[in-house]
Amino acid sequence: MRSTVVTTAFLAALSLAAVAGGAFAADSGQAAFAKRKHAMDEMGHALFLQIGKVAKGQLHYGPDTVQAAQTLNNVAQTIATLFPPGSAVKGSRMNPDIVKDPQKIEALAMQTQATTAALLVAVKTGDLSKIGAATQTADKACAACHTQYRLKTKL
Ligand code: HEC
Asked: What is the three-class DSSP state of 122?
């Protein structure tokens, strides 16, 4: 848990620094792939293994649930930066067409951010049915991108 918090703070700082300094251009494709995988895994872990399980009654609601929702919402802010040209490397499932559709990616990222922000609000209420509904809405936003831009097999 502690390492997740630290990593998220690190990622958030990294993305801010990158936005300020244009550092993403310097990222190698491999590094960008590793960063993307880490960010996606972190969001998946928070959404499905932490919040989703609470909604299903398989895990107790608590401060960790709120922290997971916060982490998810923080990482979601970086989504549009995770697909730089050259990062559709071997082993990745990123559809290389992503780099041709920056506006569409921006829209899908913003849509996802709206759902993770709403999920954070829902999680803070502690109401399991609200949390469940907001989890599903977020899941749909993630899937809207995955169905179009995540390949079924690795490159
Ligand atoms: C704008 C597009 C987009 C959005 C939005 C998006 N993803 Fe992804 N996601 C991808 C792509 C592309 C990959 C494949 C990345 C790769 O293999 O290089 C991926 C991969 C993943 C993976 C697999 C990571 C691995 O270990 O290979 C998980 C888990 C994941 N996403 C979770 C999420 C969750 C949860 C959300 C919503 C909160 C989300 N994603 C939103 C595009 C997106």
From this structure: helix
